[in-house]
Amino acid sequence: MPLLPLVQTRTVGSLRVHALQAGLQMLDGGAMFGVVPKNLWERKIPADAKNRIPLGMRCLLIEHPDALVLVDTGVGDKESEKFMSIYGVENAPVGAAGPTQLESALAEAGFAAADVDIVINSHLHFDHAGGNTRRGEDGAAVVAFPNARYVVRRGEWDWAHFPNERTSASYFGHNYDPVSAAGRLDLVDDDRELLPGISLRRTPGHTPHHQGILVESEGERLFYLADLAPTAAHVPLPWIMAYDVEPLVTLETKRRFWAEAAAERWTVVFEHDATHAFGRIVGEGKGYACEVLTNT
C-alpha cells in the first residue's frame, strides 16, 4: 500500500499544525479490534492475506510562538530487518543511509530535527517513541532532536522500565534511555499546560499513564488521541484494541473525553489511521461516531 502524503496541515486558531506521516506498519486486525468480530471491523479496514491491516504512524508538529513542538516520533531507524518485516514497517530503506520518513516529513514542512524545541511522547511504545533516538555513526543510539527537551509521564517512564511478559515486547530502552543519559528528559506527574494553549491530558487504558495532547487557540481545540482511538474506526465506545492493558479503563476514558470533544467540536488527530488524519467525535444514538475531516 502506498504511503499517504508526508504532511497534512491545518490551523487551530492562530496556531499552525502539521500531521507528519512517519511511516506505515501492518498489524493483526484481530489484535487491533479486540472483541469486535472480523466481519464488522473488516468493513472499515480490509485485511491482507495474513490478517494484517495497514496503519500509519502519524506525528504532530505544532508551530507555537514559544517553541516548535513535536508529538510522538514513529518507529525510528534502529531496528533490524527481521523486526521491520514482522511489523510490516515502511519507513526508510532498511540498511540504507539517508533520512527516515519522519525526517523527510519535517523537511517538507520546512524544518529540521535541530529546530524542534520540545518532543512530547504520548507513551513509550516502540512505534511512538522509536524516533526519539537515531543510530549514530558508531551504531549506538543517540538523541535524534539534539536541541529538544523530551516530555514523558513519570508513570509511563516507570512502567516502561519494569515491563512484564505482557508488555515487554513494546518497550525498548534504546528509544528513550539515551534521552535521559543526555540530560534532555523532563518527567511530569500530572495534567498541565506545557505552553500557553498546549496541555497534557492523561488518557489511561492503553497503558496506565498514556496521555493525549490538547491544542487550544482562539476558541478552537485539537486533540491528539494517540492510542486512545488509533483510527477513525475505533471511535465507537466498545471498539478497543486487544493491545490495551486496561480495556475497561479505555472504555471509560473514551466515554469521558468523547462527551467533551463532541460538545465542543474538537478536531481530533488519528495517529494510526492509514487514510484519515483528522476527524470529529459526534453523538450517534446512545454512543459516538466519527465525522472524517478532509485536509484543508
Let me know the CATH homologous superfamily: Ribonuclease Z/Hydroxyacylglutathione hydrolase-like
CATH topology: Metallo-beta-lactamase, Chain A
- Give me the secondary-structure category: alpha+beta
Number of strands: 16
CATH class: Alpha Beta
Quote the beta fraction. Answer: 25-35%
Number of self-contained structural domains: 1
Largest sheet: 7 strands, mixed
Looking across the biggest beta sheet, what order are the strands in? Answer: 1-2-3-4-5-8-9
Helix run count: 8
Q: Care to describe what's here?
A:
With 296 residues, this protein is α+β, with helices and mostly antiparallel strands. The protein has one domain: Ribonuclease Z/Hydroxyacylglutathione hydrolase-like (Metallo-beta-lactamase, Chain A, 4-Layer Sandwich). The protein contains eight helices and 16 strands. The longest helix has 18 residues, at 247-264. It is globular, with a radius of gyration of 18 Å. It starts with 6 loop residues before the first strand and ends with a strand. The model has no long low-confidence stretch (mean pLDDT 95).
Which terms summarize this structure?
296 residues; alpha+beta; Metallo-beta-lactamase, Chain A; seven-stranded mixed sheet; 21% helix; 32% strand
Topology:
Elements: E1 7-12, E2 15-28, H1 29-33, H2 38-44, E3 52-64, E4 67-71, H3 81-86, H4 101-109, E5 118-120, H5 126-129, E6 133-135, E7 141-143, E8 149-153, H6 154-161, H7 177-181, E9 185-188, E10 192-195, E11 198-202, E12 211-217, E13 220-224, H8 247-264, E14 267-269, E15 278-284, E16 287-293
